[in-house]
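Q: Could you write out the predicted structure for this multi-component system? I'm mainly interested in how the pieces pack against one another.
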Amino acid sequence: MTTSPDRVRRFHLQIDESADGSRRIRFRGSLVLLELEHVTAQLQVLGERPFAGHTSLDLQDLEYVDSAGAMAILDLAEKIKAQSGSCPIDHASPTVQGLLNLIDIQALNQPPLIGIGGQQDFITRLGDGFLEFLRDSSQVIIFLGEIIIDLLAVCIRPRIVRWGDVILTMKRTGVEGLPIISLIALLLGLIIAFMSSLQLRQFGANIFVASLLAIAMVRELGPIMTAILVAGRSGSAFAAEIGTMKVNEEVDALTVMGLNPMHFLTLPKVIASLIVVPLLTMYANLLGIIGGLIVGVTLLDLTAYSYIQETRNILTVFDFVSSYIKTLVFAFLIAAIGCQRGFQVRGGAAAVGQATTSAVVAAIFMIIVVDSIFAIILTYIPR
Amino acid sequence: MKTADAEPIIIVEHLRAEFGDNLIFRDVSFQVKRGEIFVILGGSGCGKTTLLKHLIGLYRPTAGKVLVNGVDIVAQDPSEMEQVRKGTGMLFQAGALFGSMTLAENIAVPLQQYTNLPAKIIDLIVRMKLSLVNLTGYENHLPEELSGGMKKRAGLARAMALDPPILFFDEPSAGLDPVSAVELDLLIKGLNAALGTTMVIVTHELQSIYLIADRIIMLDKETKGIIAEGDPRELRDHATEPKVSNFFNRKPAGEEYIRLAQKLRLEMTLVETRRGG
C-alpha cells in the first residue's frame, strides 16, 4: 500500500524442492496486507501440512513487506519450526530484518489477560435479570425519596435552587413541546370523535360524542398522552444531558466545588416538569375537545353551542382535580427517572445511549402502572 | 528513505482557513517528505489542530490546495477519498477508541471494513498490532479499563491497523506523565524507523520535539501563518525571530510575565523581547 500501483508486483510464493529432500520457500514481490488475502490459504497449507525434510525461507526477492506481511512470514516460520525443529529465514534485507525484529511472535500466542464474558444458561440469566430489577427498583425508590426530601427543603430555603435553570427547562419542556402536543391532541380528538360517531349515529346519539370525548380526554387520554410525549421529548433529554456530564466528569466537578449535583441538576428539572406538564395536559385536553367539536359541527350536524353545553354538563370539578393530581405524579416520575438514569451512567457514549432509552422505557412503564392505580382508586372514591 | 531529496508525500499550497469571519491562518504552504517525522507546532490557539484536520480532509479550506499521496483532498472525490483514508491513520488526542468495543474489536474495525481476510488472520494481526504498542494480552479490555497512556497506544494500534504510509498525531503526549510520554515518543520513532511511515505530529512538547522531529513548521497566532521551518535543534540555537526563540527556549513573551519572573527572583534567563516583530 505504501508503494504506488506501478511499483507493486503481484506477490507469489515459489517452492524449490531439492534432491536431498529439503525445500526452500521463496517470497517474491511485495507482501502487504491486501496481498495477504490471496496467499493466506497457501501459507496455511505450507505451515500445517507435514513435511519430512528441512525447510528454509528465502526473502531475497521480497521487494517490500509491511507489518502484516512480516507477521505472516514469522508465523509460517514458527509453524514449520514446531514441526521440523528449525526454519531459518535467509537473505532478509536490513529493512525487512528490522521489521521482523520488531514483531514479537511469542506475544501473538499469549492468552488475553482477561476473558470475554461467557454465555450463561437461561436460569442464571433469569435470576440475574430479576436481581437487577430489584436493585434497580430500590435505587429508583431511594432516588425518588431523596428528591422529595430536597423538594421539602426548597420550601424552607428556596435559594438552593437555580431558578434560572428552572425557567430554561420550563421553556425546553413546555413551550418547545407545544407544536407536537397540539398536533397529536387535535388529531386524537378528531379521530375519537369520528370513530365513535360511526357507532353512535346508528342510535341517533350524536350528541353523546361530545360527552364521550370530554370524559376520555380529561380523565385518561390527555394526561397519559402528554406524559408519554414529555417522557419521550424531555425525560430522554434529561438522561442524556446528565449522563454526558457524568462521562465528562462535570458531575464530579460540581461535587468538588461543594455544590450538590442533586440541587444543581435534578431539582430544576423536577420543579420545571411539575409546573409545565399539568399546563401541557390542560392544553392537550382543550385541543382534543376542539378536535371533537370540528367533527361534531362539520359531520354530525351539531351546533357548536350544543356541543360545548354537553361538554360542560358532563365534566365535573372532580374530573379536573383528579386529572391534575395524576399529572403531577406523572411529571414527577418522568423528571426523576430521567435524572436517575443519567446519574447511573458509567463509561462512554454507548452508556449514555442506554441510559436515554432506559429513561423513556422506565418512565412510560411507571406512567402506565400509576395510571392503573389511579383508575382503581378513583373508582372507589365517593364523590 | 530519509534523504533530503525524498519525494514529497503531502503538499500544501497557499492554504487559507476561516470559520465565518474568524481567519485562522492564511497562505500556508509546506511539503512533507516520505518517511520523515514532521512536527507542526505553535502556541495555544494558533490553529495547529485546525491545520491537521485540513490535512486529513475533515475540514475544507476556504482557499488553497492539499495533496496527500497525489490525491487532491480539497476536491473530496468519494472514491479517491476512500483510497486516501485507507492510506492514512490518525491518532486522536484522547485516543477516540469506541467505548462499547474491546480493544481487539476496535482495531479489527478497519481490517473488517477494508479487507476480506479471514477472522483468524484478522485476530492474528490485531494481536500483532497490540504487541507492537506493548499492549500484549489486552485484547479483551474495554477502553474505560485503561489508563490514558494505554488508550493512546491502543489508538495508535488502531491507526496502524492497515499499515498506512502516513500517520497523523494530534498532541500524542498531552496529558501523559513524562515516562509514558517518552515511551510513546520512542514507540513513534521506532515505528517510523522500522516501517518507514511518514508521521505528521501536532504537539508543543519541547522535549518530545527534540527527540523525534526531523523537521518542524511553527505557526503563529498573530501572523496567521508559518513563522519558522526547519530542524528544531538548529532553530533553538540560531533563531533570530524572538517568538521562535522564546518558544524553543521556553521563555515568557509578555512583559508582565517578565516582570513577574523578576519579582519572584526565579532562576530564568530572560532576554529582552523585541516586541512588534
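A: Regarding packing and overall arrangement: The longest strand of chain B covers residues 8-19.
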